[in-house]
Amino acid sequence: MAGKAIIRARAAALTSQFEAVGAVPVETPVLLPAEALLELYGEDIRGRAYVTSDALRGEQMLRPDFTVPVVQMHMSDGAEPARYTYSGEVFRRQEEDPSRANEYIQVGYEVFDRENPAASDAEVFAVMQDALKSVELRAATGDIGILAAAVAGLETTTRRKRALARHIWRPRKFKALLDRYSGKAEVPQSRATLLAADDPMAHEFLDIGLRSQSEVAERIDGLRHDMAAEPISPLQVELIEALLTVRETLPNALEHIRDLAVDMPAITEATFRLRDRMHALEARGVDVESLEFEASYGRTSMEYYDGFVFGFYVPGRADLPPVATGGRYDALTRVLGQGREIPAVGGVIRPSLLVDLEDAA
Amino acid sequence: MTIKLGVPSKGRLMEKTFSWFGARGVGLSRTGSDREYAGAVDGVDGVELVLLSAGEIPRELAAGRIHLGVTGIDLVREKLGQWEQQVQEKAELGFGHADLIIAVPGCWVDVDTLEDLDAAAAAFRRKHGFRLRIATKYHRLVREYLQANGVADYQLVDSQGATEGTIKNLTAEGVADITSTGDTLRANHLKILSDALVLKSQATLFKSRKAAMDDEERVTMKALLTTLGLDD
Lengths: 361, 232
Known about the structure:
Chain A has 361 residues and is an alpha+beta fold.
């Protein structure tokens, strides 16, 4: 592994490259208030980030990524449209694999622009690809928005759609829910018993805690409603499963997904966005004919990506983390913007990996 | 030099550990005044008894400051990353049984499984504007368990004691804690989720993989383990 001075120099070269295409360099604190990150990522972030605290400010996190502080900074005083670049350490707990770095430098490029999302997606991808051109990498792309649209278009109850949408990022749970809602998996015995009882609300316990009995009753109503609802049809399950397995070059994937859209009209808009992005990538000089597209890509990573997602990997080295990753995170700006939002897309590079690869070449 | 054996410094856990070793021909005892944490070992030469809080024994094993230690498997898994690389399980001692479980108010008649908990957490967050709180001291074990089982929209709040009381005090909605009989849970109006056994624990003798030993200490370790009827 290269020394820190060399990695810093490489990082500086990347930021100048990003500045040259219009990004404004920004700095963010290393210590971030834990609250916003916890609200956004939930408890899982504690397993990945270092948490510390003092008696005055409470819990603080050592910056696990730049996205949140950069979005917060932009939302509080940024002009639109905006392009930013940054460089600095991020910190990740590595409790299971001592070979993975728990502190490393990231260099990022972020675009906040309402005008033309497809063009912004393509811009970020192309800028990243250009910055990485010294080494041979495999690019992977995906689009969480297509899957989200497919879920939203299911012919079933709002409740079920909401539950599925919530678990898009947890593939096993998503599958379990789909099995339940399509009647493939049986309703748990305890639930069947509860709903069959004369008075399901009857119990011998003291009523304690913040979750009230009316909330319990509300959920029981929901469960009844769900029991009475028609199962999701085998055809629709098949379509979703077919969509999840799409993995081919971008033009072929687009054709394939368009075919699926004939039976899943809800994803039509999303396929237009995919097509527009493909054209925008082409216009940027990206070789889309050989670009991989995988509909499930990005589902197990951070929950905030909600559209285009991409990563650059070292071919044949599944043991290494990606050299660069990125994607669109419109929903995150909505959460952090307190009522305001702005379409945003960005990516980060790990210059330490880049230096190692360049040295080995 | 000596082989250092870490044993919980007080209470039933200490007494039962002493009996377990005693029944196998290794006499452990406290020396000095009642309050002094000093001990003696009879039956095997070259072994030193170190009395420690059970919660610190995993860390001392991982640091290699003690060669052997008695503590709960729950504490080892909670406190040590890659625990199997750091310590080796030598024997389950057959006492100190405890299950790490997840419990919710009994008045939540709609919640019996992890799937229910996840759905209730989602609704709770929408209604109350924050994530459903689960009080525990076993953060790592519980977080990994809930993550693996697809539960979202919860948060862990730290509770180092009297955890079952947090719900009534409105500082948590659920708890994840060690229970042996479930009496304390019932007394606090809680019920255990039927499919959420995070971990089954009992007092266990661990050997450090990190503690250095010279030739003499190796001979002592072998003699001690042989006396206890264990393989090296």
